[in-house]
Design goal:
The complex is a heterodimer of chains A (311) and B (253). Chain A is an alpha/beta fold. Chain A has helices at 47-55, 76-81, 98-108, 115-124, 140-152, 170-185, 197-203, 221-228, 274-284, 299-310; strands spanning 6-16, 22-32, 36-40, 62-67, 70-71, 83-86, 158-162, 189-194, 206-211, 214-220, 230-237, 253-255, 261-267, 289-296. In chain A, the strands form three sheets. A six-stranded mixed β-sheet of chain A has the order 6-7-8-3-9-10, with helices on both faces. Classes of the chains: A alpha/beta (311), B mainly alpha (253). Chain A binds chain B through residues 17-18, 52, 55-59, 76-81, 83, 85, 87, 89, 91-96, 100, 103-112, 150, and chain B through 2, 4-5, 7-9, 11-12, 15-16, 19, 86-88, 90-98, 248, 252-253.
């Protein structure tokens, strides 16, 4: 990637905590301007540590990070102005009103009051009607929105969402996805961590997989799905067969124990033209197909395969 | 300078004060009024004058200092400890603010509260005893200086504390004894010579003595020394706060 396209450049960033635990090993990563980047990894992989370092909450042991060209330690003011963070935990003030807390956030990040902007943010998050409510009286999902509103109060160019939909119901999750897409349309770069792979699959342009403090891979989602995704074709037969005809041996076929189904597994690299050929040859061998079903492996399976292989 | 941030933190803290008005202003005013009634009016009537000042009047600066001291510590320590405890401090630590701005916001608000408290107590005391203020400018100066110094001290405790118990330990185990033995209720010249020497190691002596001087023009310790020692303590607190942010102690893992 051309360095000019990178809005965040992480160079050799490592972190060893005082306890001796090495959370990150010299990690390099560039985030493109305007993309949605999903950081996937099991619990304890180092996702939150990495975000903490970029946002200034954790001191890196080594390496450096540039946010829009500004070193996050030497030029922390310029760097941090551009970043908004939605933390994983629902950490909110309890006695403050929603309105007071978003005003606080905006001021804290050095921006002059702009009630019109805050109103837009609250409306976009369906919080406008709750603006005078004490945060303590809100539901968990509403508190999550308040945290997002706080992070957007200062009009950041980069938004970190650490596990944005953990413990959030389906409806709110869909709303959040829509919100994140809306932000991208406005040019905001979004980095989200999640272990809901469905989320990364749904939203991300690129995916990074982190495990035990190491970046295992970074790839365009589509490429990743194609390269590592398994596809499967199941053929339901009119009449059960006892065995597969020998002339079909070149295909990797599996016959179900009761002889009623044939399963064909292939991956993104295989020629898609093989399927019609297979069907023709089955018919020629006197095997009638009643129904068929295709299935593509989800990112979840890819992820489990990747991380599992390292164990 | 990120003045929007300072103002945001300051306003946030002052709003918290507004919500806890009973606890932070009314409670100390009531307990101090009780001191005035018991020691000033009831017992004080039978006490001799000290340096030509009635005991009730003598008590006024001491009691105000006592309350300002303890409230500064408790306010400022709570102000920074709560966000650490609840986790909301992430926002301040990830914001484009320097430690100077953070300290001005939090400590400034705690000190403001203490100055307001001291002023209210001064007015309340006037209802119980007659007193004069010879050097109002110095009186205000000592009040502000003490409020700022001990709010800084409280801020340090709030960062150091790892639990609510520790938050209370320093104020109750160290500060309250020092405040009581610092000449709030008596002139240190009333002590035996040995204890007079020992007492000079107590920083509160200088605060109370300087503050009392601004009222009545007489003091246990020369006012210049009082002023110097208070400034020294302020400087020490500033140094510790600087070191905390420099090293990231308890704030940045």
């Amino acid at each position: 990637m051309n360095p000019a396209d990178a809005i965040i450049q992480i160079e050799g960033v490592g972190k060893t905590y005082a306890s001796g635990f090495q959370a990150l090993q010299a990690l390099d990563l560039s985030i493109r301007r305007g993309e949605i980047f999903a950081l996937l990894g099991p619990n304890g992989a180092g996702k939150t540590t990495l975000i903490g370092i970029v946002c200034g909450l954790v001191k890196p042991t080594s390496g450096r990070v540039l946010a829009d060209g500004h070193d996050i330690r030497k030029d922390y003011r310029r760097a941090r102005e551009k970043i908004g963070l939605v933390p994983q935990e629902l950490t909110t003030d309890v006695f403050e009103s929603v309105w007071a807390t978003v005003r606080f956030s905006r001021g804290l990040f050095g921006k002059a009051p702009d009630d019109a902007h805050l109103e837009r943010v609250l409306r976009a998050l369906s919080l406008w009607d709750k603006r005078d409510s004490k945060i303590a009286t809100l539901s968990g999902g509403m508190k999550r929105r308040v945290l997002i509103a706080k992070a957007l109060a200062h009009e950041p160019e980069i938004l970190f969402l650490d596990e944005p939909t953990a413990g959030v119901d389906v409806e709110l999750r869909r709303e959040m996805w829509a919100l994140v897409r809306g932000l991208r349309e406005q040019g905001v770069t979004v980095i989200l961590t999640t272990h809901y792979i469905e989320e990364a699959e749904e939203m991300a342009d690129r995916i990074g997989v982190i495990d035990r403090g190491e970046l295992v891979l970074v790839e365009d989602k589509a490429v990743l799905m194609q390269r590592l995704g398994q596809r499967q074709l199941t053929l339901f037969l009119q009449r059960p067969v006892a065995a597969l005809p020998p002339e079909l041996a070149e295909y990797r076929l599996d016959l179900a124990a009761d002889g009623s189904r044939i399963v064909y597994r292939f991956d993104g690299k295989d020629d898609p033209g093989t399927i019609p050929g297979l069907l023709r040859r089955l018919l020629a061998s006197g095997i009638d197909v009643r129904d068929l079903q295709t299935r593509q492996s989800s990112l979840e399976e890819i992820f489990v395969g990747l991380v599992g292989a390292r164990r | 300078m990120n003045r929007h941030a300072i103002w945001a933190i300051y306003r946030f803290e002052m709003a918290r004060t507004g919500r806890t008005l009973l606890q932070s202003i009314a409670a100390p005013v009531i307990s101090t009024s009780l001191y005035f009634i018991v020691f000033g009016a009831a017992i004080g009537a039978r006490m001799e004058q000290i340096d030509g000042v009635s005991y009730g009047a003598f008590l006024v600066p001491g009691l105000i200092m006592l309350a300002v001291l303890t409230e500064s510590i408790s306010n400022a320590s709570f102000g920074i400890y709560m966000p650490r405890y609840s986790g909301t401090i992430y926002e301040v630590l990830s914001a484009p603010v320097s430690f100077v701005e953070i300290v001005i916001g939090y400590v400034g608000a705690a000190a403001t509260k203490s100055v307001i408290l001291g002023s209210i107590m001064l007015l309340t005391a006037r209802l119980f005893v007659d007193f004069t203020i010879l050097h109002p400018f110095w009186m205000a100066g000592f009040l502000v200086l003490t409020s700022v110094t001990f709010s800084l001290f409280g801020f340090i405790i709030g960062i150091w504390a790892q639990g609510f118990e520790r938050l209370q330990i320093v104020p109750t185990m160290i500060v309250t004894p020092l405040a009581f033995l610092g000449g709030s209720f008596y002139s240190i010249t009333m002590l035996p010579p040995f204890w007079q020497q020992v007492t000079l190691f107590n920083p509160v002596v200088y605060l109370v003595s300087g503050f009392r001087w601004s009222f009545y023009g007489s003091a246990d310790v020369a006012v210049a020394i009082s002023f110097g020692m208070t400034c020294l303590f302020l400087l020490a607190c500033l140094l510790v706060v600087w070191a905390i942010f420099r090293t990231g102690y308890r704030l940045w893992p």
